[in-house]
Amino acid sequence: MNYARRIDTLIIHCAATPNGRWTSVLDIDYWHKQAGFKRAPATEDARKWNPDLRHVGYHWVIYTNGGLATGRHESEVGAHARGHNARSLSICLVGTDKFTPLQWDQLANQVQHLCRRHGIALQHANAANGWRGVCGHRDTGANKTCPGFDVAAWLANGMQPHSDNILIERRQR
Length: 173
Hints:
Elements: E1 9-14, H1 25-34, H2 44-48, E2 60-62, E3 68-70, E4 88-93, H3 101-118, E5 133-136, H4 151-156
Parallel strand pairs: 1-4, 1-5, 2-4
Antiparallel strand pairs: 2-3
């Protein structure tokens, strides 16, 4: 990828929705419109990318069924972590602090893919390493618990979630 901006960081978010409830990228686009976000794609490719999503701040959203929805184009600066948007890409998990096994698998796959694609170190990003690597929104100094789990611990555990953060849906009888 040869974009005009350098990508050093992946920032993981949660949608702050009830765990397990279906939420789409269209819902998030609506919420981001209400918050005053607006896309301003600079390239022709970005202008053609998801033209009906005019406000979403994230680059990807991972649904409860493990599906991966696209938001902003990779070349677009996101609207997701103040002070960190210019050199980062964002992934948002639907839910708050418990995610389905399919979401966890998709997150690990997407993080590995993006780290390879952009030459990002598969390490916890923080001020000491110049924000190079992967971190949670709360790690950037945001006064939030987002993404609802400790990204540094997740990375240190081989991208395996802590059992407290796994949503096991009960089958209806």
